[in-house]
Amino acid sequence: MVTQAQLDALYDAEVLDQAGVKVGPLDRVYLDNATGVPAWVLVRTGWLGGRRVFCPLTNAEVVGTQIRVPYPVGMIKDAPEIPAVEHLTEDEEEQLYDYYAIDEGPAPSA
């Protein structure tokens, strides 16, 4: 399970996809609105981190100074464009749940 303490220690950690391919550096951790559990990471992608995309922490694991997520890099980079503000709205979370094919509800970190 990925804990908040682990994520706090990984400032600027690299996010890797399911095959170990670098997606980009961790920008920010977002908590689930209902549970307060770390549920999403915002990842900087592209040249000089020009685009930031959300990726769920569902079944993610911390490996050293990296976070490995069970999604392919192309899928992560093509995630819906959602503004990186203080928190995700319920509608934004729902859009991301649909995109990543996660059952409705909080994305568990495991």
TrEMBL record:
It holds the Pfam family PRC. Residues 9-72 form the PRC-barrel domain. One of its GO terms (biological process) is photosynthesis, light reaction. GO terms for cellular component: plasma membrane light-harvesting complex. This is PRC-barrel domain containing protein.
